[in-house]
Write a structure and sequence with these properties.
The chain has a five-stranded parallel sheet with strand order 3-2-1-7-19, covered by helices on one side. A five-stranded parallel sheet has the order 8-17-9-10-13, with helices on one face. It has a four-stranded mixed sheet with strand order 6-5-4-18, with no helix packed on it. Helix 2 packs across helix 13 (408-427), helix 6 crosses helix 7 (237-244) and helix 13 (408-427) runs parallel beside helix 15. It is built from 16 helices and 21 strands. It has helices at 2-9, 27-38, 56-59, 91-104, 191-200, 227-235, 237-244, 247-261, 266-282, 286-291, 309-313, 371-374, 408-427, 438-453, 479-487, 499-510; strands at residues 20-23, 44-47, 111-112, 117-123, 126-131, 136-139, 141-144, 166-169, 183-187, 206-210, 217-219, 304-306, 318-321, 325-329, 332-335, 340-342, 345-348, 362-364, 393-395, 431-436, 494-498. Strand 1, helix 2 and strand 2 form a beta-alpha-beta unit. By secondary structure, it is α/β, with parallel strands linked by helices. It starts with a helix and ends with a helix. Helices cover 33% and strands 17% of the residues. It binds NADP nicotinamide-adenine-dinucleotide phosphate. NADP nicotinamide-adenine-dinucleotide phosphate binds next to helix 5.
Length: 511
């Protein structure tokens, strides 16, 4: 189908009047804004529900917030940053990096803040959008960059409202609440809970870590970069480029990805041995060690990288509570065995509803099709990017894309490379509507599901990677296959409606 591509490339730029709306000003939305401006489009608007950019890095501000991807790899490929202070970037530095980059590329001028899109409806060949405050907009192309983990999941524990201290979800950390010398309960042992416990273990008078399921912990060092190193990065763009694409890190990511899709590979056995040794060698007390030992395979849940979690849980002020929670009472957390943990603060590190994506936005596609109906069983999209009957709407970090211990920036950049080729079809003036065909999605998704069940994520544990039917909601093939898939769309998988035809249809529906 290169004919389609060649045909449209020759008329590129014909429709520079195209109106783009990008939903969400987190990492992916900012990327879309930068790329659209760089491509020469001037009619671009980003809508952001909050009052600042940053997505997950704006919402999460809990103590210890750190990205487990090395700093220099957690950057846009076109915007290296010599000033990272540590090997693993602290959340606040990432937020500052995105704010700086947004300004540098002029994206800050095209964002409307405090405007949550609540309705997005396809009518007469365009998307009609409405914000919560009542602003209306019309776009030719919508890019949904709404993020994956943005709706906090609150646990169903009785009595939460009765607690007399402070209780909040970790993505809503209340910084007005003093911490030092007080008693805190952290419910949850995902990446978030582990980072918080590690950060607070020496500050609290008492810290109870409520662990429903233990986690495998991958040891990692997190050294500071010296002033000399940072100066060298500033002086030498080649060195900085090298840091961004550090061969050892890239090789590790590739090995890790291959291990995910081949659970019985030597690479996966190697990962298992490392985390097992970490547990054996880091935790002295055999009773605590057994409490912390998972009964499922490493990397089945998202693997946790931590330099100091095992040290933290062995500090005198920390207790790992593995019993079942009965309820929350005014004074603290009551266990099923009757024990009461008296607390001043309860932090709910209980994760996110990972299947929401654009929702709760009300999205209506061609012919009145409702996204909520299409996604009733599970969110699906061809290549994680396009949904049949939702033309000219493309997703960054959409459902069933790659997730794991690697940079989502890299994923979003490859996805953008693919999306811009779909946009070129519309921009050419030849095609009025571009969306994946139903047949292509069916084939893609059935192959994806079969492969996903064979990944390590499907090897027998509970995690946010699993969809409502227990199938890993991820890209289940190698990283290389993802890069190849994103290099150029297979246009035969798309329903392409000629502009003339789409316009005629919309004229009919107008009458
Ligand atoms: P999570 O991985 O979904 O973990 C939620 C935790 O809460 C689990 O331990 C879960 O236990 C527990 N939980 C849920 N409901 C509970 C209940 N009713 N009673 C007791 N425990 C309950 O959430 P997260 O830690 O916020 O992490 C989510 C994702 O965010 C990560 O996997 C990662 O992708 C991202 N993240 C990344 C970083 C980073 O360094 N890059 C840092 C933080 C977060 P069960 O295991 O038993 O269900």
């Amino acid at each position: 189908m290169t004919g389609i591509r060649d045909g449209v490339m020759s008329v590129l730029g014909k429709r520079q009047d195209l109106r783009f709306v990008v939903i969400g000003a987190g990492m992916a939305g900012i990327l879309a804004g930068i790329k659209l401006l760089q491509a020469g489009y001037r009619n671009v608007m980003l809508y952001e529900k909050a009052d600042r950019i940053g997505g997950t890095w704006r919402e999460n501000t809990y103590p210890g917030l750190t990205c487990d991807v090395p700093s220099h790899s957690y950057t846009y490929s076109f915007e290296p940053n010599p000033d990272w202070t540590r090997y693993l970037p602290p959340g606040a530095e990432i937020q500052a990096y995105f704010e700086r980059t947004t300004r540098k590329y002029g994206v800050d001028k095209i964002i409307r803040f405090n405007e949550e899109i609540i309705r997005c409806e396809y009518q007469q060949r365009q998307w009609h959008l409405e914000t919560r405050s009542g602003i209306r907009d019309v776009a030719d192309v919508v890019v949904a960059a709404t993020g994956v983990l943005h709706v906090p999941r609150y646990p169903a524990i009785d009595g939460m409202e009765s607690f007399s201290g402070d209780l909040f979800h970790t993505a809503r950390w209340d910084h007005s609440v003093p911490l030092d010398g007080r008693r805190i309960g952290v419910i949850g042992t995902g990446s978030t809970g582990v980072q918080i416990v590690s950060a607070l273990s020496e500050r609290m008078q008492k810290l109870v870590h409520f662990q429903r399921t233990p986690q495998w912990i991958m040891p990692v060092e997190n050294p500071f970069f010296s002033e000399e190193q940072k100066q060298a990065f500033r002086n030498d763009p080649e060195l900085l480029k090298y840091m961004q694409n550090e061969p050892e890190y890239l090789a590790n990511v590739e090995r890790f990805n291959n291990a995910i899709v081949e659970p019985d590979s030597p690479a996966m056995h190697e990962i298992e041995a490392i985390v097992r040794d970490n547990l054996e060698n880091s935790v002295d007390d055999p009773v605590l060690r057994e409490k912390l030992r998972p009964n499922y395979r490493a990397a089945c849940k998202r693997l946790i990288y931590s330099p100091d979690f095992y040290q933290a849980v062995q500090r005198p002020a920390v207790e790992v509570e593995t019993g079942a929670i009965d309820r929350i009472e005014p004074k603290g957390v009551r266990m099923k065995d009757g024990t009461l943990h008296e607390l001043d603060i309860i932090a709910l590190a209980t994760g996110f509803q990972a299947d929401q994506f654009m929702r709760p936005m009300n999205v209506t596609g061609r012919g009145g099709v409702q996204l909520n109906d299409v996604w009733a069983a599970r969110p699906r999209a061809y290549m994680a990017i396009s949904i049949p009957e939702f033309p000219n709407l493309f997703m960054l970090n959409g459902p069933n894309g790659p997730v794991g211990n690697f940079s989502l920036i890299d994923i979003a950049e490859h996805q953008w490379h693919y999306i811009e080729q779909l946009i070129a079809l519309i921009d050419s003036g030849k095609y009025g509507e571009v969306s994946a065909s139903k047949e292509a999605l069916e084939v893609f998704d059935s192959e994806r599901i079969a492969a996903a069940k064979r990944t390590i994520f499907g090897s027998g544990c509970q995690s946010w990677y699993l969809d409502a039917e227990g199938v890993p909601a991820t890209w289940p093939w190698s990283q290389q296959r993802f890069y190849e898939a994103m290099s150029q769309p297979d246009y035969t998988a798309y329903q392409l409606v000629a502009l003339a035809e789409a316009t005629a249809d919309s004229a009919v529906s107008d009458t």
